[in-house]
Amino acid sequence: MDLVGGLSSGASLKTRWVIPIIGAFFVSSLTACVSVGGLYSAPGDTGRPAEEWLLRQRAEHEQRAMEEQGLIYEDEQLEHYLTQLARSLQPPEVRKGTSFRVKVIKNTSADALSFPNGALYITTGMLARLENEAQLAVLLAHEMTHCNNEHALRALRYCRETVSAGSKLYGPGGGGQVPGALQWGTSPPALEAYLEELELDADRGALQLVLRAGFDATEGLKLIECQQRDLDKEDLEEASRSALHRHLEKRRESWRMLLDRWTQSEPRRLADRETYVAQVHRVILDNALLDERRGRFSLAEREVENYLAVRPNDESAYYLLGEICRQRGLLSDRSKAKKCYAKAISIRPYYADPYRGMGLLYYKEGEKTQARMSFQAYLSHAPAAPDKAYIEKYLTTCN
Questions:
Q1: pLDDT at residue 67 is higher than 50
Q2: Torsions phi, psi for 105 (to 5 deg)
Q3: Tell me: the pLDDT tens digits for 303-353?
Q4: Inter-residue contact 54 to 147 (CB < 8 Å)
Q5: CA dihedral sign of residues 146, 148, 153, 155
Q6: Sheet containing 101-105, strands listed edge to edge, beginning at the edge strand earlier in sequence
Q7: Given its phi and psi angles, is residue 171 left (phi above 0), alpha (psi -120 to 50 degrees) or beta?
Q8: Taking the complete model, does pTM exceed 0.90, yes or no?
Q9: Calpha distance 301→285 (Å, rounded)
Q10: CB 3.0–4.6 Å: which of 160, 338, 353, 359 could bond 375 by disulfide?
Q11: DSSP-H helix ranges across 90-217
């Protein structure tokens, strides 16, 4: 998995939250820009070490690239909700240090990342996988701890020191520079071990933040377990996949040990599923639609069903679930698709799209009379439908 340039190239983040690559995202370009002897003064005499200055410059560059490539999911209300939740987790004594802000990336992978300047990014895929506000709080607190504890800067300094030492990072003979693309599971073991420790440190900080804010910390364990289940669905090299499984297992056991230290006599903590889904409902359906278009039907089905568990009267969700079942095409899917279309129509009788889906199902089954009635209903409710000519061709064969 590339640790450098993933965003600027428009590539998938590939489960970024579960991968301990803090700072390595920036390391390659930075090692090319700063000599080992010139780490201690930033250009323009800003008073910051050059490594910190360059980290912030690279962070701003990557954020601009995301904006220019249209990767940002535009929803001002959602961004406000996420940002306010992040800031509510920040302890008052350190709140002035970093002003966190959260944005959403249009990407179906379950990922999140943080930049040293306090910018946090969550993918639509991650928001669709989360089950409640407590899990969101754990995720945000984890990324915030990376910023609060300057993990990117520490990772960069570690790389600098080991590069200058010549052997600690690369073994006998050294190498003199950080490789242009690091792969988790195939990069130098010393670097992986160091970055993994930073991830565990972020978990420790996250637990403290969510407990202080009153959230159910056991949801952090569920979140890691969810990441373990989803890992096999990602397009990864086998070496990276195996290494990530081992890493996630370490994080799961570490989180469990942290929870064991939490006094069980404390009152029940907040999870709050309804508030979470109410705030992110649109992005859940939008991401399910992206998964459906990519042919990830089981994942899309699960996302829509999780959504319907909280908002059971949304006709567009029933229609999307019907489309997922119809396009997947299993024998058992046909009955479920019809029920979903019928439910959508019962909620909003003039909703045209479910009639189209119903017609396509009946046509495939050879039920031409039922298909014709459904297609006619579709066109009567959507006379200017963009696929009108396409549906009319079906109608000519139904007579």
A1: yes
A2: -105, 135
A3: 999 889 888 999 999 999 999 999 998 988 999 999 999 999 999 999 999
A4: no
A5: negative
A6: 101-105, 119-123, 112-114
A7: left
A8: no
A9: 10
A10: 359
A11: 124-129, 133-148, 151-165, 189-213
Greatest mean pLDDT among 171-175, 181-185, 378-382 lies in 378-382
Q: What are phi and psi of 312, to 5 degrees?
A: -75, 0
Strand pairing of 119-123 and 101-105? parallel
Three-state secondary-structure class, residue 129 = helix
Domains located in the chain, CATH noted = 16-260 (no CATH), 273-398 (1.25.40.10)
Give the span between the Cα atoms of 86 and 84, in whole angstroms: 5
Both structure tokens of 341? 């279309």
What percentage of the chain has pLDDT greater than the value 90? 42
In this structure, are residues 101 and 121 in contact, taking their beta carbons and an 8 Å threshold?
no
Q: In terms of Cα–Cα distance, which of 199, 205, 242 is closest to 224?
A: 199
CA distance 102 to 121: 6
Secondary element (H or E) of residue 84: helix 76-89
* Most distant CA atoms of the chain, gap in Å: 82
Structure tokens at 186: 């195939």
Whether 83 and 102 have beta carbons less than 8 Å apart is answered as yes
Can you tell me which residue has the tokens 């089954």?
A: 365
Of the candidates 52, 223, 246, 53, the one whose C-alpha atom is nearest the C-alpha of residue 151 is 52
Q: What single-letter amino acid sits at 184? A: W
The amino acid present at 160, given as its one-letter code, is R
Is the Cβ–Cβ distance between 240 and 192 less than 8 Å?
Answer: no
